[in-house]
């Protein structure tokens, strides 16, 4: 008898892409661009997450000498974060590596 070996489906790999930026419009543009490309390539996604905005505040005195009326400056820095979790096969790995990202966005890619 001639038995043929069944081909097992290729092993899927998981990738976690974290986008971090101080510019909300830029990060939303890149995030939606990645989502549209994922739908076009029919890549399985396990999670598309918007992390709550982190607001860093600094309060400092205006007067360097410390005399006079107490006047204060308040500064804020908002940090926006988005996470995309993907499952893909080998052919899609090159696509993920070639995603066009503008300056001002920090990208962290982890293979799980």
Please give a structural write-up.
GO terms for molecular function: structural constituent of ribosome. This is 40S ribosomal protein S20. Residues 16-110 form the Small ribosomal subunit protein uS10 domain. Keywords: Nucleomorph, Ribonucleoprotein, Ribosomal protein. Belongs to the universal ribosomal protein uS10 family. The protein has a single domain (13-111), classed as 2-Layer Sandwich (Alpha-Beta Plaits), CATH 3.30.70. It has helices at residues 24-41, 90-97; strands at 13-21, 44-61, 72-88, 105-111. It is elongated, with a radius of gyration of 23 Å. By secondary structure, it is an alpha+beta fold. A 4-stranded antiparallel β-sheet has the order 2-3-1-4. The model has no long low-confidence stretch (mean pLDDT 82). Helix content is 23%, strand content 46%. It is built from 2 helices and 4 strands, in the order E-H-E-E-H-E. The two termini are 41 Å apart.
What would you say about this model in short?
The protein has helices at residues 24-41, 90-97, and strands spanning 13-21, 44-61, 72-88, 105-111. It is of the alpha+beta class and 112 residues long.
């Amino acid at each position: 008898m001639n038995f043929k070996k069944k081909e097992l489906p290729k092993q899927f790999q998981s990738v976690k892409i974290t986008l971090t930026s101080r510019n909300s419009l830029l990060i939303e543009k890149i995030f939606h661009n990645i989502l549209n490309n994922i739908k076009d390539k029919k890549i399985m996604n396990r999670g598309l997450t918007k992390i709550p905005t982190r607001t860093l505040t600094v309060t400092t005195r205006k007067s360097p000498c410390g005399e006079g009326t107490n006047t204060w400056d308040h500064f804020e820095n908002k940090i926006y974060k988005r996470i995309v979790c993907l499952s893909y096969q080998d052919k899609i790995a090159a696509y993920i590596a070639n995603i066009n990202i503008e300056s001002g966005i920090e990208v962290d890619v982890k293979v799980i």
